[in-house]
Amino acid sequence: MDETVAEYIRRTVLKIPRDEIKMMLQKWGFLSEAQLQTLNFHQIKDNISQEVVQLCEENSADIKQAAVLDIIYNHIYQNKRMWSVYQMKKSGEELEYFDITDFKKKFKRRLRSALKNVTITFKEYEDNAIWIRVAWGTPHKKPNQYKPSYVVYHSQTPYVFISSSVLKSTLPLLCQALIVASNYHDIREMELRSHSLNSLKDIVFKRYSQNFQTCTPKPLQAGNVEPENEDIRIVDENRSEKERIHRLNQEVFGSGPQPKLEFAQYRLETMFKSDPKMDVLDKKEPFRCLVKFSSPHLLESLKSLAPAGMADAPLSPLLTCIPHKARNYFKIREKKGLYPQSFVSP
Amino acid sequence: EKADPQKTAFLLRKAWTLYSVTPLYGFRRGRLRDYARLLSAFIAAEKQKGLAVEVGVELDIKVALSSLADIRGSEQDQAALLVQLSSRSRGSPRNSEDKPVWWGWFCSVFGDELSESVPEHFTCLPLFLSHGAESYTALVGSWFQKTFDCCFRRLAISPLNLSWMVAMWAGCKLDRAASAVELVFSVPRLAQPLDISYAIHPEDAKALWDTVQKTPGEITQEEVDVFMDCLYAHFHRHFKIHLSAAKLVKISTAIASAHCDGIVKILHSQYLPGVLMLLTELAISQIQ
């Protein structure tokens, strides 16, 4: 077995938390159940990984198999990576039958024609997701297995999720190979990025509960607002305001759980407008700002701002449009003409 | 009075943790070498007691005390006092270089308000800045407290003071390309905490401040409030969020950055005295 492959397997196993190693090796299926039985999972990880390497040696593992183990690790720990979303465009409306074998063949052929030294690995998952791992080399160097790109493609959709290699120059090649293999003619990066791959899928596949205007607003149930104090001597003075805020929030965010995003970024190039009495800045040029919102769960956080008194209800459409516009990077410019108060986001 | 850029270069671009220090009793500028020896012995003794700082590595800590004559505001100010801890691992050869591991310096820049009110034998250096392991800070701090009967307290920076800093520093003239004026807010009490970073192009922030400030060289609370209100209003116009209700936790400009936990980074030597003057004032307020 190649030394570099051995080292790569050793380092991959080391990344796995100790009580998950057995499960991942089983998912991998490269070592037999009998071989797995011989492993002592109660020792330090260093030793476990050495033993795994030895077993792989017995089975003559090559880089292809090692790459599959890496995909399995990254599939389970997908949230450790930052994912960007790309949308592919077809020229016509034809619904073509998706042939996975054809896809793989074309993808490999396209990449290999541009770059001789690449390691390409595929793994299909139950939700129609095709995971692709590409390790990049140069005409003179073998592929760097430690900086691969990962692509997740749902064949029934025009969306591709990419966790790029830090080797930036590889991205155009990757995009090229994707459109050729999937019979699309163009691909563009969406302004949507997150660590939570599932949330990105929720947003572009519209799998979250969206805001539907209800014809008859439901009367507020006791469970919808903060649990009222049992003490009847305490009167909630702005109960109607609270209810109004709650209703507006529901309309705008929907009542289901929000997709999980960690940040949203706005590049503002709008004019600074102030009360003329204040006698301050009155420039004809934009007031350039960069605003970034971060939270472990951004949309839930934004949803709670108005009820907490931190924001007006309804919240600004710049924020509430994030899921249905499927973007969390924005560039906002002043809209000229009839409605100087509104904003355009290209 | 400008400080010698070479001597003060080490002050720039480091994150300094701030403390206020009450006046030192019985401190004598001529005895710096003695103090260094005593502090060194103290640190060694504490390590023997098992309050080891670095685990697993045998380190000798060397202490050096020096005066930074240039770091003061008026003639009444005491020159700044620098304490530097360096390490040399026991294994390495005798003439190998010591590696600095911790810095702490006391200073007073226009701290006349305090120095005028203390009796004889007291030395006023109300601002203390440290950089390095917290455990060293604790050791040095406790030696000074025991030896000079003084008291160290962490200096937090309130949102009010942070807004002064950002308004003041956003208005400073800079010759080369400056970094953005950034305000970082935190809304902690939500079920899912939210952080908001609001960064403004430095030219635009300065342009705004220039129209707010009425008298050059002088800043009033009202002007700072107007500046902040403008920023809040611009933000509210877009996002409908009341930024004024969030907690301002950090500000950052090309001159310096400051965090509410009392951590500053000074980036520009030209404005070092100005920054230190403001921090001295904060330290004195905390002492009084």
UniProtKB/TrEMBL annotation, chain A:
It holds the Pfam family CENP-N. Keywords: Centromere, Chromosome, Nucleus. It is found in: Chromosome, Centromere; Nucleus. The keyword Ribonucleoprotein does not apply. It comes from the Eukaryota. GO terms for cellular component: chromosome, centromeric region; nucleoplasm. GO terms for biological process: CENP-A containing chromatin assembly; chromosome segregation. Its main location: nucleus. Belongs to the CENP-N/CHL4 family. This is CENPN protein. The gene is Cenpn.
UniProtKB/TrEMBL annotation, chain B:
Its main location: nucleus. It comes from the Eukaryota. It is found in: Chromosome, Centromere; Nucleus. The keyword Cytoplasm does not apply. Belongs to the CENP-L/IML3 family. Keywords: Centromere, Chromosome, Nucleus. Signal peptide: none annotated. This is Centromere protein L. Pfam families: CENP-L. GO terms for cellular component: chromosome, centromeric region; nucleus.
